[in-house]
Amino acid sequence: MPPTDRSTTHPARCTECASLRRLPRNLGRGLIWIYRHTLSPLVGYNCRHLPTCSVYGDEAIDRFGLWAGGWMTLARLLRCHPWGTSGIDNVPMAKPSSARWYLPWRYGRWRGVNAD
Question: Which of 28, 99, 109, 106 is nearest to 63 (CA)?
Fold first, then answer.
């Protein structure tokens, strides 16, 4: 049997796999987009942080995926109340070193802003 040349089919397969892996991430970002264009204008732009919570969530989910980014977003939303934090609070550049998929609460920053 002659060897088969998989170089022609491999890139297409990788592209399909990558798009399937990004599907949950894109669905989460789609929900944030829907919120921004429907409910947010009705409620008003009253976020206590910069960037706003929806921008933070969009960036966190885009950077870290739906699971980790979703937990980061949840932590941010729970800090955004009248007695909570305020100010500049950017998405971290890397996941926390103590975070594991089975310990999802460790992804979020539950107190303060821009912790080290």
Answer: 28
- Closest by Cα among 86, 67, 66 to 76: 86
Contact status, residue 107 vs residue 96, Cβ threshold 8 Å:
yes
Walk along the chain (116 residues) and give the pLDDT tens digit of each residue: 555 555 555 555 677 888 888 899 999 999 999 999 999 888 887 788 889 999 999 999 999 999 999 999 999 999 988 888 888 999 999 999 999 999 999 999 888 877 54
User: Which amino acid would we find at residue 36?
Assistant: R
The answer to whether 56 and 89 have CB atoms below 8 angstroms apart is: yes
Where is 87: in which H helix or E strand?
strand 87-88
Q: Is the preceding peptide bond at 96 cis, omega within 30 degrees of 0?
A: no
For residue 54, give every residue at least 6 positions away whose Cβ sits within 8 Å of its Cβ, in sequence order, or none. 32, 35, 36, 40, 47
